Amino acid sequence: MISTEKTLLLNPEQLKQKLRRIAFEVYETNFEEREIVLAGIVGQGVVMATLLKEQLEAISPLKVQQIDIQLQKTDPASHAIQLDIDSATLAGKCVIVCDDVLYTGRTLAYSLMPFFQTKLKRLQVSVMVDRNYRRYPVSADFVGYALMTTLNDHIEVVLEGPEAGVYLR
Question: Among candidates 130, 147, 144, which has minimal Cα distance to 25?
Fold first, then answer.
């Protein structure tokens, strides 16, 4: 049973600080690049990519392109995973896949699949929260907040609006 009580883990200001730190880490890792591509996973991953793009454009000369990854999170194996552009246009580019929470790794593992169809320069992952519990062999290169939770816990990330923050249920 999932609790309806929420415990605030990161407030809006802390969330913004984490995003800014991730932006600096992304820039430090990719400072030799002229352009990077942020690929947001449908839902809060798209919001994270948008906010990260804003931060990167504020602190760096990088040209930042944003794309969306569409997939059925509850059953990604039985539905097509789609990018909102032709994956061939990403050849030779650095792509960073963005999502709100990395838990079992299933959503992230399936989200990476379209990128294996083209020859990228680099493929990286950025998440706001890493729960450090994997069932799939994936990891994040850029993490805002890492924590261990029980299987019964639920992490909710709200990146915009009056309820912005990271919550534990």
Answer: 144
pLDDT tens digits, 90-107: 999 999 999 999 999 999
**Of 157, 142, 132, which Cα lies nearest the Cα of 22?**
142
Pairing of the two strands 142-146 and 122-130: parallel
**Which tens digit of pLDDT belongs to each residue from 38-65?**
999 999 999 999 999 999 999 999 999 9
Q: Where are the alpha helices (DSSP H) in the chain?
A: 12-29, 44-59, 106-112
12-150: CATH, from 3.40.50.2300, 3.20.20.140, 3.20.20.70, 3.40.50.2020: 3.40.50.2020
Report the alpha-carbon distance of residue 142 to residue 14 in Å, rounded. 16
- Report which DSSP code applies to 30: T
Q: Are the CB atoms for 98 and 130 separated by under 8 Å?
A: no
Contacts of 162 (CB under 8 A, 6+ apart): none
